[in-house]
């Protein structure tokens, strides 16, 4: 399952890198339903929304991720979601917003 999850997330990365944020959001909507506890999916989702100019939806994506992770299963969001939480003024801050800087990114082949 882990390899399939990675491959699906890599497809979302490819959509984002190609500038097809809407395609990434559509794919990630489905992937998050399938595996809601994978932080990398939430981070990609918020990034795709942000890059598509949907700042408010991106903020809501962070809030949903924290709700699912913290309230449903008692887990604190990992560094990836915590470090990129909305900061003053309601703006999303993506530090190193390259898809290669995100949590769970793997380098090299399979």
Please state the average pLDDT score. Answer: 79
Proportion of helical residues? 55-70%
Oligomer: single chain
pLDDT below 50 for ≥5 consecutive residues: which ranges?
A: none
- Name the beta content range: under 5%
What is the general shape? globular
Q: Can you offer a commentary on this structure?
A:
This protein is an all-alpha fold. The chain is 59% helix and 0% strand. α1 runs antiparallel to α2 and α2 (21-34) packs antiparallel against α3. The longest helix is centred in the middle third of the chain and has 18 residues, at 55-72.
Keywords:
110 residues, mainly alpha, globular
Helices, strands, pairings?
Elements: H1 2-17, H2 21-34, H3 39-51, H4 55-72, H5 79-82
Helix pairs in contact: 1-2, 1-3, 2-3, 3-4
In short:
This protein has helices spanning 2-17, 21-34, 39-51, 55-72, 79-82. With 110 residues, it is mainly α. α1 packs parallel to α3 (39-51).
């Amino acid at each position: 399952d882990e390899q399939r999850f990675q491959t699906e997330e890599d497809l979302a990365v490819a959509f984002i890198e190609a500038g097809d944020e809407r395609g990434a959001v559509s794919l990630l909507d489905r992937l998050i339903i399938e595996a809601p506890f994978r932080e990398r999916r939430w981070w990609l989702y918020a990034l795709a929304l942000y890059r598509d100019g949907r700042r408010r939806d991106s903020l809501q994506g962070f809030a949903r991720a924290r709700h699912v992770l913290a309230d449903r299963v008692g887990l604190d969001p990992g560094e990836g979601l915590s470090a990129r939480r909305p900061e003053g003024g309601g703006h999303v801050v993506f530090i190193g917003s390259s898809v290669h800087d995100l949590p769970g990114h793997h380098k090299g082949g399979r």
